[in-house]
Amino acid sequence: MSTERVTGPDAKVPDPHVIAVLLGQHARVKGLFARMKATAGQDRQEAFGELRALLTAHETGEQTVLRPVSAEVVGEKIADARNQEEKEADKALAGLEKMDTTSPQFDAAFAQFEKSVLAHAEHEEAEEFPTVRAHCTDEELQEMGQHLLRADKIHPRTRLRCLRSGLGS
């Protein structure tokens, strides 16, 4: 099955696949962490603003699109752990927002924040993504990706269709 669709006069555009979208966002987050370390002043402040916006959109998408499916196919314990990590990251991010990005206190808090966000992404990539991919059809993964890109809630029917017989019992 092709992962591309034609739009307009023979233009090929990759279809959104939820795992590919999330992995792409993880790569962008890592890039912004690197940019934060490599810049100063206004550039650093702008990178931090981009990072905040991306993390907020990413977490919202995961919580509304991925996590309901993940809870059913991977288990509520793992889904709840990822949600808890995101709540802790939100608190840390709120603390960072109150700091001057040029201060040593910011640097120390930001280093810890980066470590926890990257560990969270590793948990998702190892514990959630492979199982969700294995239990959903390509069509469902594409649909979830489209919802994720729109930061829309996934329709409950899609979540239920992702379950193979016997998994929810």
CA gyration radius, whole angstroms: 18 Å
General shape: elongated
The H-level CATH homologous superfamily, spelled out, is nmb1532 protein domain like
Helicity range: over 70%
Number of domains: 1
Give the uncertain stretches in residue-range form.
1-13, 152-169
Spatially, the strands of the biggest sheet line up as 1-2
Mean pLDDT across the residues is: 83
Count up the helices. Answer: 6
Folded structure, characterized:
This protein is mainly alpha-helical. The protein has one domain (5-9, 11-151): nmb1532 protein domain like (Four Helix Bundle (Hemerythrin (Met), subunit A), Up-down Bundle), CATH 1.20.120.520. The chain contains 6 helices and 2 strands. A hairpin with a 3-residue loop joins strand 1 and strand 2 (11-14). Mean pLDDT is 83; it is low at 1-13 and 152-169.
What's this entry about, in short?
The protein is mainly α and 169 residues long.
From the structure above, extract its key features:
169 residues; mainly alpha; two-stranded antiparallel sheet; disordered C terminus
Question: Secondary-structure map with pairings?
Answer:
Layout: E1 4-7, E2 11-14, H1 18-38, H2 41-73, H3 76-97, H4 104-135, H5 138-150, H6 156-161
Antiparallel strand pairs: 1-2
Helix pairs in contact: 1-2, 1-4, 1-5, 2-3, 2-4, 2-5, 3-4
